[in-house]
Inverse folding.
């Protein structure tokens, strides 16, 4: 899937979020956002979490890798997506 295809699908599903923003401008905004997110993941330290509100959390962990007897340290990045609680899951304290 290309960046343009993602933007067009997002516009179709959530047109009011994009308003009258042209596809090229939306591409530039999304590309800049994703590049910054990638940069934040790249400079994150061992066992750091990068949480993006209403999106999800990137978890960075260092792992020892053994390749043909050579040991090195690698990074594993996992992503846990944000999940909204339904009205039934939200606790409400009523007096």
């Amino acid at each position: 899937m290309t960046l343009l295809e993602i933007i067009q699908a997002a516009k179709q599903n959530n047109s009011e979020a994009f308003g009258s923003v042209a596809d090229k401008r939306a591409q530039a905004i999304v590309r800049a956002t994703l590049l910054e997110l990638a940069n934040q993941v790249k400079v994150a330290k061992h066992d750091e979490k990068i949480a993006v509100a209403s999106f999800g959390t990137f978890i960075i962990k260092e792992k020892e890798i053994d390749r043909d007897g050579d040991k090195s340290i690698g990074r594993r990045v996992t992503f846990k997506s944000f999940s909204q609680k339904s009205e039934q899951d939200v606790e409400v304290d009523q007096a």
DSSP finds three helices and three strands in the chain.
